[in-house]
Model the fold of this input.
Amino acid sequence: MSGPRGHVRGADGRTWETVVGLEVHAQLLTRTKAFCGCRNLYGAPPNTLVCPVCSGQPGVLPVLNRAAVELASRVALAVGARVRERSVFARKNYFYPDNPKNYQISQYDLPFCEGGGVPIEADGARLDIGLTRIHLEEDAGKLIHPEGGTDPRASWVDFNRAGVPLIEIVSEPEMRSGEEAYAYLAQLKQLLEYLEVCDCNMEEGSLRCDVNVSVRPAGATELGAKFEIKNLNSFRNVQKSIDCYVRLATGDGADTGGASDLSRHLDRGSHTLAYDPAEDRLTVMRSKEEAHDYRYFPEPDLPPLVVTAADLDRARAELPELPWARRERFASAFDLRPYDAQVLTATRALADYFEAVVAGGAEGRAASNWIQTEVLGALAREKKEFADFRVPAAGLAELLGLVKDGTLSGKMAKDVFAEMVSTGRTAGSVVSEQGLQQVTDAGALDTAVRQALAQNADAVASYLQGTEKSFTFLVGMVMKETRGRANPALVNAALKRALEALKSQT
Amino acid sequence: MITAAALAHDLRAGRLRPTEVAEAALARIAASDPKLHAFLHVRGADDLMAEAAALEKRPRDTWGPLAGVPVALKDNMCAVGQPCTCGSKILEGYRPPYDATVVERLRAADALIVGKTNLDEFAMGSSTENSAYGPTRNPWDPERVPGGSSGGSAAAVASGMVPLALGSDTGGSVRQPAALSGVVGYKPTYGRVSRYGLVAFASSLDQIGPFARTVEDAALLLGVIAGPDARDATCMAEPFRVDAAELAAGVKGLRVGVPDNLLREGLDPEVAAAFHAAVDTLGGLGAARASLELMDPAYAVSAYYIVAPAEASSNLARYDAVRYGLRLPSDDLKGMYLATRRAGFGAEVRRRIMIGTYALSAGYYDAYYLKALKARTLIRRDFERAFGKADVVAVPTSPTPAFRIGEKVSDPLSMYLADVFTLSVNLAGLPGISVPCGFTAAGLPVGLQLIGRFGEDARLLRIAHAFQAATDFHLREPAGSAS
Done:
């Protein structure tokens, strides 16, 4: 998309600007729930991680899990937000069976932190997407509507998830396209993983995203009517849903209803849409007619949340190098292309590994190439994760050292590496056990050349008559003599010398 | 009349056995409760006797401070093995899966929890007439109410069925029934006693408090249940203690503040007479009298009847037919909610939920709830000002003695005014106590309310104890009382 960010030409010829804001809910990786001592775990049998508090029995009270505050503090510091010294919990009142108290403990007008931003790169440009706020709240349980079964009208509630701590990260409406939204989500996910705050698994629901999108005539300062898109289950679908909305709203799409269709819904007051990725279609959500009145009021069972400078210092000390900072440092310190720096810093584990390989003596670019091709490539082919990769950094450094000092050719190194991966042995032990050292000794090479020439007189003859192709064949024969272990460059040189000598004899 | 302290002493000394005490309590309950209906649930005799027998087998030096003493609990506190109806149909049959902190502490003290007492539904009321299971009768006159909402606990102690009971006080629900039933009722400073396991009515106002015949007994029970609790984030961190010496320290040099501006009209003349005599008694004991001017209690009534219903509307949302309690099935979810709550909640509860929902709703929050919170701050400051001139504030607990069953129930506003002298105390979080201070010509009890500074529970008990040591109103018993 060229031209100003988010500018789209509508079907009516006018230019429109897309405005996107995202609300992301991230489950925090605390050991126990937000307000009780139940374990915070995914996948347990239904209603086995519950207690009187998180199942909303009469008479129970919430007690804040400070670990949730620690994790939220890390995020706030990483994005440069202003953490409130005193924030207030509030009750968000609404009735639903997955909501055990029929109110959710959240934060309303005095949230945990405000401001800050996330740097992203989209369409070649570097942007900083501002955040409005981040606040703490508890998750609801899960409703299961089984298809079929003895009573198709029965639904089941599992409260294992009720009370799991969440942070809600609200961005400013500063994104201008589906692509930017995707980039923002990807960067946010990486950040949360780096901070070890959330495992960011959209399929399991530990990361959820709602879209707020509107369009306005390019150049306008007021925001257009806002539509909300909910229940998106992947970053790609977030992007596609926004693109779909823009097409609809600017009247440019196969849907002949176009903008007039949406504005009809606007009149009826429905601003919530659902996206069908299979059909690439947006529909008005059938659910509630009126907006909820949540009747927020300060939670009387919890004192204000106090976060002191000392608390923040402690959280700051736990911060790792942030992903964008590490990317930049890798590019400059190890002389890597931006793309390589990005790949190598995708996760902290991988970045740590790369740095350890370099610290073990390997050269930056060599390590980068090797890791991307041999390690990540192989893992991808075998559908495995980096966590499954067992070769220690020092071991890879050793291997790369053997390539650098000529002991192994590149090709040999790959074979050795394969041995290292499957047996767990070091490069050194594989090489010495299999006698794989590259043959570089001049005498040994000359012997091999002599043998090859002696056994391939026809090829020699054909080369001497001018067939260049025979040289390559003879190189192959020399390599065969050395069982593939000769240094190719040295083979070339030795063979050339020998053939020249023969030439001069004729 | 035997006090809990004396009972505990005799049990400990071996002059009485826990099984004898348990049997006697069951007999008294069997004799009096059919008429009074103080109890909603009494534990089975086998169960109780087995517990008493088990206690007997243990060496007495391992016994807790309330070992073998019968205690009754208002039926809005969770105790495993007993129902918890909150006086409502919506929790009929509900059995809590956990113990309230106060119950845990009573068990650790080896108290004998005999049963659950009647209350206004979800603690909303001043007469116990709002119970879905029928009213409790005042032991002094069975045609009259015992007060509310903890009427069952008050009547159980007043009639001598048990020496100790726990109630809960949100706007006066321990103090007012204590006054109307002629017993001691204590509301601690907000946060003094853990609310974990107390079914919430208004979270920022609720406190659990003891009923007893004497201040000393009330202090004994308070000492067992009060103190820090990690499961209640609003509970104070400081431990609570009051020993016998402190309790008996007297009132010399202390100032008793009387808000003369509030006592000019609207008071029953017999209540007024008993009250003023009580203030004179305190003067005779060495306390100085200070004249105070306190804020018009009408503001407290208005603020309370916004804050409490607002919090209640949220606290009672959980009664939704989904996880426990009454369920009236329907064609859809909304239908199930509506049918169940309409059938399960009584009129007063529904009234307050509606008021509370309204006060919190968009467009009205600022005008009602926020405004009420601001009024609350002013009420707190009014007391702080008063406590510059006095160490304790004295008012009548209730403007009238016990009224007839049915007299006020059809006029909610007039019922609300029964708490005119008690509501402000909850709004300010202060400790308050009602002690018997006289009787009307018809023989109905009158209560003196003493209000202390925030956190000064020990001092308040000391002043109340001094008054009781100099009077004998608390020794009188209703006719036919089973002591």
Notes: The CA atoms of residues 187 and 399 of chain A lie 33 Å apart. The radius of gyration of chain A is 31 Å. Chain A touches chain B through 28 residues (CB under 8 Å). Residues 364-381 of chain A form the longest helix (18 residues).
